[in-house]
From TrEMBL:
<feature type="transmembrane region" description="Helical">
    <location>
        <begin position="110"/>
        <end position="129"/>
    </location>
</feature>
<keyword id="KW-0813">Transport</keyword>
<keyword id="KW-1133">Transmembrane helix</keyword>
<feature type="transmembrane region" description="Helical">
    <location>
        <begin position="265"/>
        <end position="284"/>
    </location>
</feature>
<dbReference type="GO" id="GO:0005886">
    <property type="term" value="C:plasma membrane"/>
</dbReference>
<dbReference type="Pfam" id="PF00528">
    <property type="entry name" value="BPD_transp_1"/>
</dbReference>
<dbReference type="InterPro" id="IPR000515">
    <property type="entry name" value="MetI-like"/>
</dbReference>
<protein>
    <submittedName>
        <fullName>Nitrate ABC transporter permease</fullName>
    </submittedName>
</protein>
<feature type="domain" description="ABC transmembrane type-1">
    <location>
        <begin position="103"/>
        <end position="283"/>
    </location>
</feature>
<comment type="similarity">
    <text>Belongs to the binding-protein-dependent transport system permease family.</text>
</comment>
<feature type="transmembrane region" description="Helical">
    <location>
        <begin position="58"/>
        <end position="80"/>
    </location>
</feature>
<keyword id="KW-0812">Transmembrane</keyword>
<keyword id="KW-0472">Membrane</keyword>
<feature type="transmembrane region" description="Helical">
    <location>
        <begin position="169"/>
        <end position="185"/>
    </location>
</feature>
<dbReference type="InterPro" id="IPR035906">
    <property type="entry name" value="MetI-like_sf"/>
</dbReference>
<feature type="transmembrane region" description="Helical">
    <location>
        <begin position="141"/>
        <end position="163"/>
    </location>
</feature>
<feature type="transmembrane region" description="Helical">
    <location>
        <begin position="213"/>
        <end position="234"/>
    </location>
</feature>
Length: 297
């Protein structure tokens, strides 16, 4: 009798253990499925966000084109040409003999002016951030440089350099350099002095301190100033080329305006906007994301 009871008890226990294992396996499978699903959803989020952003931009572009077409239909073409006339003018410009030369000339001037502004503004910003004496001395001068209009720099450049490439390069430089300098200066002021003192106590060299402590702190400020300076560089280059150049996009814009070729004015403007977006979205933003991929979103 007792053997029967023990046998039934043992079989019940075995079934219980088996059932427990089955439940455990089921729970494990459910957990694994949940984790897999969450990972799939997480991987899909960037694409959904990108698709939603693209849809928003496309809708905005369509609304803008519709409003533009409606407005152009009520005024003469020399006042406001329609999108189709501007597109045709852009095609005609692209087929002209001087188109490639003008575009490359403007791009070269902007890049050289921006590069010079970076080379000069970055070390000056570091110097002002590390020396209170220098900061006090140069602060009024920097305020003056930030308030001077690009048109005034263009007038000075024409007097000093005449009708040449140097005129546009100088105007881009004088507009972009203070922006980069100011941002690097602010970034260097936010460097944790405790970290610097600790690095010195470990006898780190000045180059190591600059690379390991200053650079990670300053880079976000530098890129903020660089993107702002690059955008301003595009704009002021047109002013400089309009006043002091015999080629380039700004010069062609002035020619078209003098001849009341409004469709060409819009076409050159559209081209400039597209080029700015390509440089911003295809170069600066990807480079910034790559350099700061360690930062939390």
């Amino acid at each position: 009798m007792s053997d029967g009871i023990n046998g039934s008890t043992d079989s019940t226990a075995v079934r219980g253990v088996a059932a427990g294992k089955g439940l455990g396996a089921s729970a494990t499978d459910i957990g694994a499925s949940t984790i897999s699903l969450s990972r799939t959803q997480a991987s899909d989020r960037p694409w959904r966000r990108l698709g939603w952003l693209f849809a928003q931009r496309a809708a905005l572009a369509i609304v803008f084109l519709l409003l533009w077409t409606m407005a152009a239909s009520h005024v003469p073409a020399f006042v406001l040409p329609g999108p189709e006339k501007v597109l045709q003018a852009l095609v005609n410009l692209a087929q002209s003999a001087t188109f490639t030369h003008d575009v490359l000339t403007t791009l070269t001037r902007i890049v050289i002016g921006f590069a010079l502004a970076t080379v000069v503004g970055t070390p000056l910003g570091l110097a002002l951030g590390s020396s209170r004496v220098l900061a006090t001395f140069f602060d009024p001068l920097l305020a003056v440089m930030n308030t001077v209009s690009s048109a005034i720099w263009a007038v000075f450049a024409i007097i000093w350099f005449g009708i040449s490439n140097a005129t546009t390069i100088f105007v881009v430089f004088m507009t972009a350099m203070p922006l980069i300098l100011t941002n690097v200066w602010q970034g260097s002021q936010n460097v944790d002095k405790l970290h610097v003192d600790l690095a010195r106590s470990f006898r780190m060299s000045r180059a190591q301190i600059l690379r390991k402590i200053y650079l990670p702190t300053i880079l976000p400020y530098f890129f903020s100033g660089a993107r702002l300076a690059f955008g301003f560089g595009w704009r002021v280059s047109l002013v400089a080329e309009t006043l002091g150049s015999s080629d380039g996009i700004g010069y062609r814009l002035r020619q078209a305006a003098d001849l009341v070729q409004t469709d060409q004015v819009f076409a050159w403007t559209l081209l400039l906007v597209v080029l700015m977006l390509i440089f911003e979205g295809g170069l600066l933003k990807p480079l910034e994301r790559r350099l700061f991929r360690w930062k939390p979103l």
